[in-house]
Amino acid sequence: MKEELPILYYDEHLIAIDKPAGLLVHRTVLDRHETRFAVQLLRDQIGQHVYPVHRLDRGTSGVLLFALSREIGRSLSAQFEAQQVDKTYLAVVRGHPGEAGHIDHPLTRQFDDYEFRRPDSVGEAQSAVTDYRRLAVTELPYRVDLYPTSRYALLELKPQTGRRHQLRRHLKHLAHPIIGDATYGKGRHNRLFQQLFNCHRLLLACLEMQITHPLSGLPLTLSAPLALDFESVLNGLGWKEPRKAVDHSEHGEHNGKQ
């Protein structure tokens, strides 16, 4: 049976899907043995070429937008480059960050394998800004690091820029890495979630994206439901309504980097 991707929005100019975790957007040199790609699957599904206008990491699930022509693709890409797209992500992180925060931390540029690299661009830092809001916290009775218990938090993330791996790198910079992140996270915490919740994915999802339709000029909100495997982890942590989660931490509690 031919695999089909969940379609969130579809008109004659653009299409948005709910990308599952573990699916690459397009072929890369690093994953040369992979045979499944969102671009190819969606092209076969709707019977026409599609043009991705932004990226989601392989491990991230949620809203992924494509144009249906190169012209529309350039128009949509311009919105992303001009920081005119409002994106909302959900993530489970290690520790208890503050109730809200503004991360303004430049990131060294990371290239795709097909991109031309100027000799003077190696090590070049780009501005990168992320806002976050803490939705819920928990403390589990398991020793993972130096402490007898382990703390975790649910965050709403709003990237203001679109650097590669920005959210994952910014949360690592705060010493609150995203659970399931094999590159920037902590293996011991990732393994605890595998053992407790059978969780083998990055706990990061793009739940909403607000753009301006390139033809009508009207605002368009694209929303994706939380993936079932992600929701199962949140339920296991006692967070039944993640977008309406209540932060039960006591006023003035210590927001350490545990």
Overall form: globular
Percentage of residues in strands = 25-35%
CATH-scheme architecture:
2-Layer Sandwich
Counting DSSP E segments of at least 2 residues, the number of strands comes to 12
CATH class: Alpha Beta
- Provide the low-confidence segments as ranges: 113-117, 248-258
Give the topology string: H per helix, E per strand. Answer: EEHEEHEEEEEEHHEEH
Summarize the amount of helix as a percent range.
10-25%
Q: Could you tell me how far the N terminus lies from the C terminus, measured between alpha carbons in angstroms? A: 46 Å
CATH superfamily: Pseudouridine synthase
The domain count comes to 1
Category from helices, strands and their pairing: alpha+beta
Which fold name is given in CATH as the topology?
Answer: Pseudouridine synthase
What is the mean pLDDT?
A: 89
Main sheet specs: 10 strands, mixed
How many helical elements?
5
